[in-house]
Write a structure and sequence with these properties.
The complex is a heterotrimer.
Chain A lengths: L1 H30 L7 H19 L3 H25 L4 H20 L13 E2 L9 H5 L1 E2 L1 H19 L1 H11 L1 H6 L4 H27 L11 H11 L4 H20 L9 H5 L1 H14 L2 H7 L12
Antiparallel strand pairs in A: 1-2
Helix pairs in contact in A: 1-6, 1-9, 1-10, 1-11, 2-3, 2-4, 2-9, 2-10, 3-4, 3-9, 6-7, 10-11, 10-13, 11-13
Chain B lengths: L6 E10 L2 E11 L4 E6 L5 H8 L7 E6 L2 E3 L4 H7 L1 E4 L11 H7 L7 H14 L15 H13 L5 E5 L7 H16 L3 E6 L2 H7 L2 E6 L2 E6 L6 H9 L17 E10 L9 E9 L3 E5 L6 H9 L9 E3 L2 E2 L5 H6 L2 E4 L14 H9 L5 E2 L2 E2 L1 H14 L16 H13 L5 E5 L7 H16 L3 E5 L3 H7 L2 E6 L2 E2 L3 E2 L5 H8 L20
Parallel strand pairs in B: 3-8, 3-9, 6-7, 7-8, 13-20, 13-21, 16-19, 19-20
Antiparallel strand pairs in B: 1-2, 1-4, 4-5, 9-10, 11-12, 11-14, 14-15, 17-18, 21-22, 21-23
Chain C lengths: L3 E3 L5 H25 L4 H9 L6 H26 L7 H18 L8 H27 L3 H21 L34 H18 L1 H11 L1 H7 L3 H24 L14 H11 L4 H25 L5 H21 E3 L18
Antiparallel strand pairs in C: 1-2
Classes of the chains: A mainly alpha, B alpha/beta, C mainly alpha.
Chain lengths: 307, 515, 365
């Protein structure tokens, strides 16, 4: 039993990493009052771009991950132009980006269905990995797991401790006021959306070049949407996002360990668990309107064009 | 070396599509001068100030600051020069603390602790007490204005622009603000003071520039003019006056509020506490007070947009607290909200479609099916009867000016023959002519036997319109006093919350209430 | 300073010009794409958009594919008007297919006339039920419908996978994840011999007329529209927001469920994992492209069906990947949203050049 639990714990970290990356990006975007529902699309574009680049250059994940981030950023630019400069409905543009991302990645991916990549070798953190039981589990992971934690720390610090973080929050609450005291709201939102795109792209590339590492059509399987839901679950706070990502990472890999834990449910129903869990979590967090609104960026989803 | 002029504008113009906001505007402000810019809503005052503050580029003309020509591309540049601005609708962030709000508008290192110390110093020096660590959402409107002013003062301004700063203040707070401004002027800071309130201008300002329809119509020394002559310069004719005849019919209570308690809307709403109020047929009752003291909550509870305990609200003898807005309308409630676009009317829809919004119950729909022709006729009649200037029933609501849209909404409600009419900020953002028309319309409506309740921030308006006036402060409502039995300074004290909650005032004798 | 400024009045002309404009821009992009792939753009576009319609069979296939798209879009449009974003129609379609198909499977062998009507009823109810869950979650718990509908879509997919792998797997199907083939009593009658066009098209026709009337003349549709355009105005007028949510999701669930039955009791004839090529998602585009107007959505549905047929045709004739259809769908929606910006906004006209000083002095004295 303990063996199973440790195996689950070990597998949870990499499973949670794409959720954490994409979720952090979306969290920053939503802090500025923009909701980008295209995370799934950006992840897929990042996944295929990363995979293609990794294969074509022969450099593997080292080339794939940055390529994925760049591709995600490019996709986010598309969103930004439509939703920020042209003031189109953010929900609709995000949806369009997802549909486009599914189509584009499947289109490009047709050439790569039979390729595979070596992935990333696990990295043992000296000292820590020697801790009995937990050491080999928590500190014997691929580099991206650690990097995602560093990025988490960076986002947390940036939002809580810097003028930029304060400004992002201000823009998300009252873009008119930020504009009135002379800030370039649209430019700031562009920056946030591009950051979100890079993070989603990175998350996608992590899936295709490190986690799986293969290209499969629609391989993100709703993780982008779960990341969006996690941001709500986190009440727009990074620390809770981290918690949520690891929780959901655990749920996604549960299906592979169900037998070991003695759960005799059909595999398809277990596979539906993360999605059901997302619904449950959304319900739990949304039912308290008061608490939700306290943290909700007040201008979320409302287009802003400077007059 | 001391500059001759702090600010000089020469032949400044600004066009928006379809409107000339400013046309060849020139004005000059000396160091230490308090200079008023007077004009009606839509006269172009705000646009002019935004150009001085670098928010909006000018199309033509030039600006000199301290005798040197400048062109500002952003408020940041304006602040660097020493220009500060206090906005009419504050540019503050509710979820942030005072010091965080101020930090966002300042350059220099990001050190909140050091900044908080400076905030305390400056606020003490100018008699503007502030706790730098408090969240802005917990501040009163007056305190929020202090934050804006302190934020400007921290940048050592040489020119301070205040856009309609007193519209949200109690009379006592206005006095305190004027003291601060005089102190600043004595230190050499020039002040541009935007307003349409003549008595304030006379009390505070050294000189005034009058604007009408984007042009400068006169320069004047306010203390040497009478209110009539100032008004003449501002609107181009005499101020219109409303006439109210005494009501002759039976003064039944049509709207009663009994011990209404309601929690505030999250996250920062005001809770209502033990509200008692009666409005009779044939009278207009006004509710004075600074916005944010429960006005929004009270209006939503009265209109049915939020529900209340059944017996807390009684409409013509029937308990309606538990009924939604539509069912209360069925029983004869008319309501004109303060937000015309987006609440009182749907901006993108035509006037004919907007007529349906509440008047579908007046025969524009049968058994759930619409009659577009009838809606069209209703809108057309409303436009004709209430003098709404527009291109016709097909015009989108958002294409109308504030005053004309207000006439349309008021007309739409009146044409449904309500028993009780509730109206919030009836003339907010409306030009003087339309405002006078609307006030007279409300008086006439009440004298036809309708109970009218007016919520307004403008004390002058309430004294002109109402038979009785109550004050809403921090979610509590004072008793409604007959107009003759109260005055501005007493109401000002009540606005600060200085009244007994159970203060009951007698029904005026002119209203014969059946026992 | 932004590029756009609001129009005083939304432009009706732009509203109807936007879809053709988006189509032209998508075609242009398509031509460039084909050129990049080394195919002659003219030839490729002909293969894509003309060849599928060269035969009368092609036209019946077009109707067959357009049917579910139009049907689902009609239901979705009700919600979109009210800004209730049901993006999980795919899941509601699947549950509708499961319920309808379940009736067929459980009545296997029966030739009774009630089987097909019962399937339609079960399918419609099933879809509506799957839509009712997010409606309940939204009205009771305030949970965002965008996310819940989509998550339930995934759940529906797994439910289908479970049923055709488990209880309802065809015992003689060599372990393929699919049910038995339905009997004739559980299939819509074919309308034209030698084609797959079936009587389910009448459901679509009926729905189009019904929704057209509903949208144009009912007070309820007006209330939904107000709720979407200005929620505060809807509250002010006393229109119930809860009813809006329920109505939107039940109606869109119902139409999606019916579309699901149309597929399993039509061209597919059984339950399997490929019963929809993403109709539920494509219908979102159909709804927008058709301006949420019952008639407009018919045209948009036909176009979107052509994209599916063209994708298949190009796969055969040009060896392009089937995913090209999805790519075009995404592009089309992008261009449409971009063009839509000009319904409410126009390009900012440069105000007359300043007749004033060109010297720029920034004084930091």
């Amino acid at each position: 039993m303990l063996e199973h639990l440790l195996a689950i714990l070990a597998a949870t970290l990499p499973a949670a990493t794409p959720l954490l990356l994409a979720g952090l990006g979306e969290l920053v975007v939503e802090r500025t009052g923009v909701i980008n529902l295209g995370v799934e699309g950006m992840m897929l574009i990042g996944a295929i771009a990363g995979f293609a680049c990794a294969v074509e250059t022969g450099l593997g994940a080292a080339a794939g991950l940055p390529a994925g981030a760049l591709a995600g950023m490019a996709a986010a630019l598309l969103f930004a132009v439509l939703a920020l400069s042209l003031a189109a409905s953010q929900a609709a543009v995000g949806l369009a980006l997802t549909i486009f991302g599914i189509g584009l990645s499947a289109f490009i991916g047709q050439h790569y269905v039979s390729d595979s990549l070596p992935g990333l070798a696990p990295l043992s953190l000296p000292g820590f990995s020697a801790i009995p039981w937990l050491g080999p589990v928590l500190f014997h992971q691929d580099a991206m797991v650690y990097l995602s934690l560093c990025l988490f720390a960076l986002v947390w610090w940036g939002l809580a401790r810097t003028r930029l973080g304060l400004l992002l929050k201000a823009v998300g609450e009252a873009p008119e006021a930020a504009h009135a005291i002379g800030y370039r709201v649209v430019a700031l939102r562009y920056g946030a959306v591009l950051f979100g795109g890079a993070m989603a792209g990175l998350a996608g590339a992590y899936l295709s070049t490190v986690y799986t590492p293969l290209w499969v059509q629609n391989m993100t399987a709703g993780r982008g949407w779960i990341a969006v839901a996690l941001v709500v679950f986190a009440s727009w706070r990074p620390a809770r996002l981290l918690l949520g990502a690891y929780l959901f990472g655990g749920v996604t890999i549960l299906q592979f360990h169900a037998q070991g834990l003695g759960l005799a449910l059909p595999v398809q129903l277990l596979a539906a668990l993360p999605y059901l869990a997302t619904v449950v979590v959304l319900v739990l967090i949304s039912r308290d309107r008061r608490a939700l609104r306290l943290n909700l960026p007040a201008s979320l989803g409302k287009p802003f064009l400077p007059g | 070396m001391k500059p001759k002029l702090r600010l000089e504008l020469l032949h400044v113009s600004k066009r928006y599509p379809g409107v000339i906001a400013n046309d060849d505007v020139s004005l000059a402000v000396a160091p230490g001068e308090i200079h008023a810019v007077l004009g009606e809503n839509g006269a172009g005052k705000s646009t002019l100030m935004k150009m001085i503050y670098g928010l909006v580029p000018m199309d033509a003309g030039e600006m000199q600051f301290n005798d040197r020509q400048v062109r500002l591309a952003s408020p940041k540049e304006a602040r660097a020069l020493g220009i500060g601005m206090v906005f009419q609708h504050f540019s503050l962030f509710e979820t942030l603390s005072v010091v965080e709000n101020i930090a966002l508008a300042l350059d220099g290192p990001y050190d909140l602790k050091a900044l908080a110390k400076r905030v305390s110093e400056v606020s003490q020096r100018y008699g503007l007490p502030l706790d730098p660590w408090r969240g802005v959402h917990s501040l009163s409107v007056g305190e929020r204005q202090r934050v804006e002013i302190v934020r400007c003062l921290l940048q050592d301004p040489q020119l301070l622009i205040l856009d309609e700063p007193t519209s949200v203040l109690t009379p006592q707070a206005v006095e305190a603000l004027f003291d601060t401004l005089r102190q600043l002027a004595a230190e050499g800071v020039s002040i541009l003071y935007i307003s349409h309130k003549l008595h304030e201008i006379q009390a505070l300002c050294d000189s005034a520039t009058m604007m009408r329809q984007g042009r400068v119509t006169a320069h004047a020394i306010p203390r040497e003019e009478s209110q009539q002559s100032l008004a003449q310069m501002m609107i181009g004719r005499e101020l219109p006056i409303c006439h109210a005849e005494p009501y002759q019919g039976e003064a039944r209570p049509l709207l009663e509020v009994r011990g209404l308690n309601l929690a505030g809307e999250p996250p920062f709403g005001t809770a209502l506490k033990e509200i008692d109020l009666t409005v009779h047929a044939g009278e207009i009752v006004g509710i004075a007070g600074v916005s944010g003291n429960g006005q929004a909550e009270l209006l939503a509870a009265l209109s049915g947009e939020t529900l209340a305990p059944r017996g807390a609200i009684v409409l013509d003898g029937q308990a309606v607290g538990h009924l939604d807005a539509g069912r209360r309308r069925d029983l004869g409630l008319g309501f004109v909200p303060e937000e015309r676009l987006g609440r009182g009317a749907v901006p993108a829809l035509s006037l004919a479609r907007n007529a349906l919004l509440t008047a579908h119950r007046a025969g524009l729909a049968r058994h759930g099916w619409l009659s577009p022709g009838k809606a069209w006729d209703y809108a057309r009649d409303c436009i004709a009867r209430f003098g709404v200037r527009c291109t016709g029933p097909a015009a989108a609501a958002r294409s109308l000016s504030g005053g004309n849209l207000q006439k349309f909404i008021v007309g739409r409600e009146i044409m449904q023959a309500p028993k009780v009419m509730i109206i919030s900020q009836p003339t907010w953002g409306v030009d003087v002519g339309a405002a006078a028309y609307l006030r007279q319309t409300l008086i006439d409506l009440s004298r036809s036997g309708v109970a009218v309740l007016v919520v307004s921030e403008e004390l002058d308006e309430l004294f002109e319109l109402c038979d009785r006036i109550a004050v809403l402060a921090a979610g509590r409502l004072s008793g409604a006093a007959p107009k003759a039995a109260t005055n501005a300074s007493r109401i000002g004290q009540q606005m600060a919350g200085l009244f007994e909650p159970a203060e009951v005032s007698p029904v005026p004798e002119s209203l014969h209430v059946p026992a | 300073m932004s590029l756009l400024e609001p129009r005083p009045q939304p432009s009706q002309r732009m509203r109807w010009l936007a879809p053709p404009l988006a189509i032209v821009l998508t075609l242009l992009c398509g031509a460039i794409l084909f050129a990049l792939l080394g195919k002659s753009p003219a030839h490729a576009l002909r293969v894509f958009f003309i060849d599928p319609l060269r035969s009368s069979y092609g036209w019946t296939e077009l109707l067959l594919k357009a049917g579910p798209l139009i049907l689902i879009a009609q239901g979705l449009a009700v919600g979109f008007r009210a800004r209730i974003f049901n993006i999980g129609a795919e899941g509601q379609l699947i549950v509708g297919a499961l319920c309808g198909g379940g009736v067929a499977i459980l009545s296997q062998g029966s030739e009774a006339a009630w089987v097909l009507p019962a399937m339609v009823l079960a399918g419609g109810l099933g879809g509506a039920l799957w839509g009712a869950i997010p409606a309940w979650l939204k009205t009771r718990f305030n949970a965002e419908e965008t996310l819940t509908t989509l998550m339930l879509s995934y759940v529906a997919g797994f439910l289908l996978a479970y049923m055709v792998n488990g209880p309802w797997r065809d015992p003689d199907g060599m372990n393929f994840p699919q049910s038995v083939m339905f009997g004739d009593a559980a299939l819509f009658p074919i309308l034209l011999e030698g084609t797959r066009l079936n009587a389910s098209i009448f459901i679509v026709l009926f729905a189009v007329l019904g929704f057209w009337l509903f949208n144009a003349r009912s007070l309820l549709a007006y209330q939904l529209e107000v709720g979407g355009l200005a929620p505060a105005a809807a509250r002010y007028a006393g229109f119930s927001a809860q009813r809006t949510v329920w109505l939107s999701l039940l109606l869109s669930g119902l139409t999606a469920g019916l579309a699901g039955v149309g597929e399993v009791a039509g061209p597919i004839g059984q339950l399997n994992l490929n019963l929809s090529p993403g109709y539920g998602y494509a219908a979102i585009i159909v709804a927008y492209l058709g301006r949420l107007h019952a008639g407009g959505m018919v045209l948009a549905g036909l176009l979107m069906a052509l994209l599916y047929l063209g994708g298949e045709s190009a796969q055969v004739a040009l060896q392009t990947p089937a995913a090209i259809t999805g790519l075009f769908q995404g592009l089309l929606l992008f261009f449409l949203l971009a063009a839509d910006a000009f319904v409410d906004y126009r390009l900012r006209r440069r105000s007359r050049p300043a007749a004033a000083p060109t010297v720029e002095v920034t004084a930091h004295a």
